[in-house]
Amino acid sequence: MSKAIQTIVFVDDDRIQHMINRKNMLRLKEDLNLQFFENPFSALDWFASNDADLLILDVNMPEMKGWEFLDRLKVLNKTIEVKMLTSSVDPDDIEISTQYNMVSGFLVKPLKNDIMAEILGL
Length: 122
Fold this sequence. Notes:
Keywords: Phosphoprotein. The chain is of the alpha/beta class. The protein has five helices and five strands. The chain has one domain (7-119): Rossmann fold (3-Layer(aba) Sandwich). The two termini are 13 Å apart.
């Protein structure tokens, strides 16, 4: 049986998605530790001294692409399950994801409640 997800980090430049995801995730499981970052550099600073069970990472952000974020996470020696978050699944992104063992799939924005429940194992 896999370990229950307790800490989820969202890295996405869309503040409205953060508000929606926070509300819906906590409705499903109220004791989650949710961390939200609009800026990927702030998220990397957080990861330098913290761990999480799951990272939900936007593929396309203005400051840094999700792939570059993963490269920087590797430098921090972090191993974490990652779900890439995107507005539409691009075949090129799927191909790139095969280079990252930590990427376990893609999620399409906006996250639906049934997908959130599946992520949480509910």
